Amino acid sequence: MFELNISTQSYLFPPHCIIFREHQRFMDSHPQTCKNCGNHFTGNYCNACGEKVYGPKDKSLWHLLEEAFHFISHFEGKLLLTLKTMFTHPGKYAADYCDGIRKKYFKPVSFFLLIVVLFLFVPSGNGLNMSISDHMQSWYGSKARNTVLHYMASHQIDPHALAVRYTASSEKVSKLLLFLLIPVMAGFAAIFTIRRKRPFFDHLIFSIETSGFFILWSFLIVRLLVWLLGFLIEIPEQKDPYTLPVMLAASLLYVFIAARRFYAFNTLRSLLFTLLFMIILPLFIHYIYSAILFFTTMNLLH
To answer: Among the three residues 58, 74, 92, which one is the final residue of a domain in this structure?
Structure first.
């Protein structure tokens, strides 16, 4: 049986150390039994399940540092390229990914999840959140009032205490529910381009890119710009004349360019797609998203 006597100092040696080369030659010439699936094989990786055989190199401090550096550089490189492509070439990220150019980009679902997590932990205004009084004045207002009255009676709390408790919970729920934007906008795009018979997967990827830009730009970047602008001029908190026009203008332009690139629309068709897109999105938020937000938050309150 092949044995290796490795001192503590060996774990600090770089991978080109002779002990690692001897171990590699042994692995290449002797059959191994996979500890994960029991398969017999030779080499460093099981040819059945892909499990790696750990040796002295894999347990060295050098290898640990290598893995940390690879993770940071790999993560950062893909993320920065994805962001750069998204902001400088709208629609290219989705188009490349659907065309099979994926290795250099961040995976779309992971990318969107990262954006939501960032939005969740970085203070940036209310986003799509609504106060409990706004819900009570909406189209489902009567149902909302009955729900609020029932909750106050069963928990013996006053309206102010409920409003505070509701706001604290809905701030997080409203951000997590942003995932609903993806299938809704993908469904719209699929109907608009139904004659092209593209896989629904393609529309989902396009929706992830456009929704991701909407969140990044509207709720993170614009808020940061307004905050910085506040150092130069006084901006009334309740009457901010800058945020909404900037959010809408950039979102309209982005969807227009992205749709032209991704779906190969002409100018007129891309303009029509953009206008319908920006009509359906507010309608969805007002009539469906807000109702889901209210009743989900109320059910989560203790």
So the answer is: 58
